[in-house]
Amino acid sequence: MERAVERGLLRRRIDEVTMVGLDEKSFGSGQDYVSIMTDLKEARVLEVLPGNDTQSGCDLWQTLPAEQREKVEAAAMDMSAGFAAATRKEAPHVTIVHDKFHVSKMFNEVVDQVRRREHHQMQKQGDDRLAGSRQLWLYNPENLEDHRFAKFKDLLKENFKTSRAWMHKENFRGFWEQESYWEAEGFFKRWYASAIRSRIEPIKKTARTLKAHLPGLLNYYLYPITNAVTEGLNSRIQQIKANARGFRSFINYRTRILFFCGKLDLLPAAYQMDSVQ
User: Got the DSSP string for 107-125?
Assistant: First the structure.
C-alpha cells in the first residue's frame, strides 16, 4: 500500500483543484485528531496530517504547491478558529465558506442540550413528558413514522423551551434558501433579533456565534459549496478505521486513507504498459 500510494501521489494531477474542504477526523483514543483536505469537485482526499490546530491547517495548505494554491477559489470549513486562521495566513485570497452541515450539527447539539436540562427539571416535579423524545427533536419530522410524528406534534403544542429552541433551529434553515446574498443577510438579521429575544440562553449563545461568523456564512451565496463530499469521505474513513480495529501509527492511517479515498493511479508501471500494449 505504501508503494502504491507513493506511485499514485507522483502521478496525481491537482492543477484543476479550485474548491477544497477542510475538516478534522478522530485518529486514536482521547483527543487525537487528524486534519484532512479534500477536493470537493473530484470527491477525493488530497492530504491527511496529524493535529487539528492552526499549524495543522497551515501545513495542509503548504502541501499544495504555491502555483496551485493560487488557483483555489474557495474552501468549505466549520466555524472553528484554526482552519480559518490557517487559510487567512497561507491562502489569503481564498474565500472561506462556513459549512451548513456543521451549522446544522451545532443546532442539533444545542436543542439536545436544552432538552436534557429541561427534562431533568421536569423530572424533579414528576413530569416525564420529554422522556424518550431525544430522537424526535433531531430527525426531520418528514422522516418520522406516523405514530412518532403524532407524538412529536403533541410535544410541539406544549410551551416547552425545547419546542421553542427547535423552532429557532428549524427557522434558520431558511437562511440557506434565499435568492441572493442580500436577502440572506436580511433574513439573518430578522432571525437573530428573534433568537436574542428568546430567553433561551443556548439559543442566544448560538445566535451570537453565527453573527460573529456571518461573512463566512453569507459566502455560501458567492460559492454554494458544502463539506457534504468531505462528510461522505469521512464515513468511508470511519469504516476503514473500524475494519482495521483502529490505528496506532499515523503513517498507516494516512496510507489507508489515501489508498482508498485519494482516487490515485495505484497500478505499477508494468501493468500500465501491458494495458497499453
Answer: HHHHHHHHHHHHHHHHHTT
Locus of grid cell 502555483: 67
Determine if the pTM surpasses 0.85. yes
> Are the C-beta atoms of residues 77 and 84 closer than 8 Å to each other?
yes
Of 23, 173, 199, which Cα lies nearest the Cα of 97?
Answer: 23
Structure confidence by residue, pLDDT tens digits, 155-208:
888 889 999 999 999 999 999 999 999 999 999 999 999 999 999 999 999 999
How many whole angstroms separate alpha carbon 5 and alpha carbon 22? 21
In angstroms, rounded to a whole number, what is the distance separating the alpha carbons of residues 209 and 31?
Answer: 23
Residue written as grid cell 489507508 = 256
Query: E-strand spans in the chain?
Result: 19-26, 33-39, 44-50, 74-77, 95-98
DSSP string for residues in 206-262: HHHHHHHTHHHHHGGGTS---SHHHHHHHHHHHHHHHHTT--S-HHHHHHHHHHHHS
Strand-pair category, 33-39 with 19-26: antiparallel
* Grid coordinates given for 76: 468549505
Q: Distance (Å, rounded) from C-alpha 219 to C-alpha 154?
A: 38
CB of 220 closer than 8 Å to CB of 79: no
Q: What is the torsion angle, in degrees rounded to the nearest 10, for the CA atoms of residue 65, residue 67, residue 69 and residue 70? A: 170
Which three cell numbers mark 49? Answer: 496530517
Measured between its terminal Cα atoms, the distance across the chain in Å is 26
- φ, ψ (nearest 5 deg) of residue 102: -70, -35
Looking at this protein, which amino acid is placed at residue 132?
G
E-assigned strand segments in 60-188: 74-77, 95-98
